[in-house]
C-alpha cells in the first residue's frame, strides 16, 4: 500500500488554489474586462460577477480527499478514504492540540515546520483573470473562420466579416503591448525612431535561441512552451513583461504612522500600470548594460537581451518584484478598506 | 665724521634684507647655482592652518546629505579593435528558429535560366551561397537573417535577366559574341541589389567568370590608398590594397576555374612568374604583392580575353558613386573624377561599350536609392531610357540650367539611342501573384502568422506601395506597419 499521505503536501503552508485552466484562443475577444464588482455593497447580486460558483473559488479539499482525487486521476492507488485521517491532519493548525501530542510527533512537526519550500514564495503572486476566454494572445490573426454574414442585395462591396480584424483600425494597428512599449521607449517625442527600435527588438527576439526557463522564476501560468516563443516575438515580449510585472505599488503616506515615519500602504495596479512599471524596470536594466556594439541598433539589442534574461529568470528585476510583493504583504494591515454600511 | 645718511642706508640693507626687493637680496646673498629649481621644489609647503575654512559662498549648498554617488568602475574588457565594426557588418544568413520550408526547391545549373521558375521562390544552393558571400553580394540591410536559408523570388525582372544570360550563351557558339549591358534602376527597397545578387547567382551556377565590385562607394570614398598609374595620359590612379582585396575575392569565388587554367600569354609583370603557372598562382601573386596587383589584374583580364574562356559577368552596386568626382585629390589638389580610377574606368569602359568582352558576357550596374549622391547625367540617361521603353514620343529634355558631367554623359550615350545591347531594367513592384508566392514562403517559414488569402495579399500589396518587395517584407514580417 502506498503511503497514505504525500509528504510533499505537508510542505504547503497555505493551500494553493488550483489554477484555472488557461485555454489558447486564437483570437481573444477582450483582453481585459474591468470588473464592476463592488465587494461590500452588492454581495447579494449573483450575476456575472458572482465567483462563488467557480471552481477556483471553492475551498480546497481536505488533504486526504485531494490526494485520493489526484490518485484517481493519475490512475494510482490513493489513500484509503474509509479509514481515518491521521492525527497530523487533525491537529494541523490547532496549537492547543499540538501541545498535547507525544514528543516524537511534536519533533516531527517541528522538523517539517511550517516553512515554505525553498525557492518558492509563501504567497501567491498571480492575479485571477476575470472573464472567460482570456489568455495570452497567440498572435494568430484571422486563422479562425470568420462568421459569414448573409448576402445583402444592393451593396457595392461585400459586408465585412465579423469580428472585425483587430489590426483593422489605422490608429490601433499595433498590438497594445507593442504600442505601449514603443511609447515608453520613445525619447524626445521621436516616435518613428522608437518604432524602428521596437522592430529591431522584435527581430532580435525572433532570431534569439530558444530560452531555457528557470523553474524558480515561474512565468505566467499557461505560458506556451519556450520553443514557441522566438517565432512569435510579440508573445515573447508580452510574456516577459507580464511575468515580471508587479501586482501593487507601495504608497508612502506621510504623517499617518506617526513619529515622522511614512505609512506604507500597498495599492493595487491595473494591467496597463503593471506593464508600465515592468517596462520601466526593463528599460532601466537595459540602459545599465554594457554597450558592446556600435551603430544605431545597440539600444534595441540591449533591451531585447534584458527581455530574454527576464524570461530565463536571470534578470535582477525578479528580485525587485519579489521585494515589492514582500513589502506589500508585510504592509497589508495598513490598507484601509471602505467602511461597510 | 662720516655722513649719517649713507650709514643709515647701509644698515637698512643688512638688517631687513628679506623685506626688500629681490634685487637687493640677490646682491647680498649671491647663490652658486642660478638655474637650480631644487630649493623651491624641496621647500616645505606652508601647511594650511586648521579651522581657517572660508565661510560658505552665498547660494552654494554646503550641507551634502546625499550619499556619495560613485560611478561604478567599468572594469570589463573592451571589445578589441575592429570588433564592433565587424559585429555591425556581420552577415547572418540563417535563423535556426525559422521553419524549414519543405516545398522549397533549389536553383541548379539546369533550371536557373528556365522560364518555368517565374513567380516561384527558389533556394540558393550552399556552394553558391559561399561564393556570393565571398564576393560580398549579401548586404546587412537585407532580411537574410530571418529565414532558415537564403532563397530568392524569381520575379519578372529576374526571368528577364535569365533571358539575357541565355542570349549571351547562345551567341557563344557563333562568331559574333554578344556583350549585353544593363543598368538596374528602381525605387527604394524595390530589390535592385537582390536582383543583382540573383544575376550573380546565375553567373556562378552557369560557371561564368564573375567579377563583382560590391559597393562603388568603397572605391571612391578615399578610404584606400591610391597612386598615379605610370605612363597614363591623362593621369589615372590605381588602388593597390583594394585591387589586391578584389583579386582575393575573385580567387575565392572562381577558384575552380583559376586552378585548372594555365597561362597562355606571357604577362608583363614586375615580379617574375613561371611560364607554366596556373591563373591561380597569377592571382595569388597579386594578392601577396599589392604593389603589383593592378598589373596582375590586367594580366588576368588578358588571359580571360583569350578564346575558349568562359563568358564574364561584371557587376557593380551603387552606380551613382562611380558617376561623379571621387573624394581623392590629384597632385595639383583638384578632385579626381571617378572615371580616372583604374577599377572604375575598367568597369565603365565595358558598360559604355568602349570595350567589348571578347568571349561575350554581361555588364550589370545597379543604382541605389539609399545613401546615393546626385548624379544628374546618370539620372537623366536612365529617365530617357525608361521613356524610350514606355512612350517613345515623349522623351524628357535635359535641363539646360544644370551643369552636365560630360564624361558621364559620353559613357552613357548608348542609352539615348536604339542600342539593343545597352538598356535599363526597371525594377518595379511585384505582381499580386508574385506577392502571394513570397508571402506564402513567409508563412511557411513561420514568420507570418496569418492565412494567406486574396484579401490579405491585396491588403499588404497595397500597403507596400503596389508591391514594393522591401516594404512588403517590412509590413508582413518585420511587424513595422
Structural overview:
The complex is a heterodimer of chains A (341) and B (481). Among the domains of chain A are: 7-25 and 36-83, no CATH class; 170-334, Ribosomal protein S7/S5 (Ribosomal Protein S7), CATH 1.10.455. Chain A has 11 helices and 2 strands. Chain A has helices at 7-10, 63-74, 87-91, 95-99, 103-112, 176-185, 191-207, 233-244, 271-288, 298-312, 317-330; strands spanning 248-253, 263-268. A two-stranded antiparallel ribbon of chain A has the order 1-2. Chain A is extended, with a radius of gyration of 25 Å. The N and C termini of chain A lie far apart (55 Å). In chain B, helix 5 crosses helix 7 (192-205), helix 5 runs antiparallel to helix 9 (240-253) and helix 6 (156-171) runs parallel beside helix 7. Chain B has 2 domains: 98-422, no CATH class; 432-476, no CATH class. In chain B, strands 5-8-11-4-12 form a 5-stranded parallel β-sheet, sandwiched between helices. The longest helix of chain B has 16 residues, at 156-171. Chain B contains 18 helices and 12 strands. By secondary structure, chain B is an alpha/beta fold. In chain B, a hairpin with a 5-residue loop joins strand 9 and strand 10 (335-337). Classes of the chains: A mainly alpha (341), B alpha/beta (481). The interface between A and B is medium-sized, with 31 and 25 residues.
